[in-house]
């Protein structure tokens, strides 16, 4: 697909202080753009984890119906019809001096497809997508693939596979990626290894206090308390 975008240099009332070679995408998540998939596009941009790029939501940018719309900072380039991961890759290449390796792009698309299958409880197909993505050997995002596949394995009842993937997710996870610890805690709990689950919960909270503000933390704490574990 050839990216169909319209570019405007009109000012949109934004200012940002950027270091050299630092770019920011502000992606509209207002009603029309949201219906056109802008939230999924934002998640894709965030999940890429590129150090030279920040992605964040923004309100309506106008040109409703021509979206998803976004603005690229610091140049304040307003873009339209950026609808797919491939479209976004072209935007990054053209305006942000950033090329996404094809392997990363393919792996991310497979992960998103796996997420969609998991949401439909098609666990076998979800696992297949995550496994294909891991076989590609992407340089970023591996921790999310292991984390997601662990969750699906656990839902299928394959606790050993869920444990192995959760351990890998924790190993590869960057600071602040709490999902990996949550997956491992969930699996340890399912295996009846309550003391290990409680210890990991405490350690994760000690390392990053923001973990305590996750909804999952409250649920984990209650579950552990129900089996006599204090967190």
UniProtKB/TrEMBL annotation:
Asked whether the UniProt record includes Repeat among its keywords, one would answer yes
TPR repeat ranges per the UniProt record:
107-140
Q: Which domain of life is it from?
A: Eukaryota
* Keywords for this protein: Repeat, TPR repeat
Q: Which SUPFAM superfamilies does the UniProt entry name for this protein?
A: Thioredoxin-like (SSF52833), TPR-like (SSF48452)
Which Pfam family, just one, is annotated for this protein? TPR_2
**PANTHER family, sorted:** TETRATRICOPEPTIDE REPEAT (TPR)-CONTAINING PROTEIN
**What name has this protein been given in UniProt?**
Uncharacterized protein
């Amino acid at each position: 697909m050839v990216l169909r975008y319209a570019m405007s240099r009109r000012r949109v009332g934004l200012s940002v202080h950027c270091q050299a070679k630092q770019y920011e995408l502000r992606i509209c998540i207002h009603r029309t753009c949201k219906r056109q998939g802008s939230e999924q596009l934002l998640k894709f941009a965030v999940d890429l984890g590129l150090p030279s790029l920040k992605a964040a939501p923004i309100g309506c940018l106008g040109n409703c119906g021509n979206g998803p719309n976004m603005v690229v900072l610091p140049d304040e380039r307003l873009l339209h019809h950026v609808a797919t991961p491939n479209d976004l890759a072209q935007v990054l290449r053209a305006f942000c001096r950033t090329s996404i390796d094809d392997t990363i792009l393919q792996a991310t698309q497979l992960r998103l497809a796996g997420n969609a299958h998991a949401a439909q409880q098609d666990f076998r197909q979800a696992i297949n997508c995550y496994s294909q993505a891991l076989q590609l050997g992407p340089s970023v995002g591996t921790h999310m693939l292991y984390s997601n596949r662990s969750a699906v394995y656990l839902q299928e009842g394959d606790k050993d596979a869920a444990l192995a993937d959760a351990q890998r997710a924790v190993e590869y996870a960057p600071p602040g990626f709490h999902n990996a610890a949550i997956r491992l805690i969930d699996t340890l709990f399912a295996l009846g290894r309550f003391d290990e689950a409680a210890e990991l919960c405490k350690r994760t909270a000690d390392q990053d206090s923001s973990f305590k503000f996750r909804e999952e933390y409250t649920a984990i704490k209650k579950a552990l308390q129900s089996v006599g574990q204090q967190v």
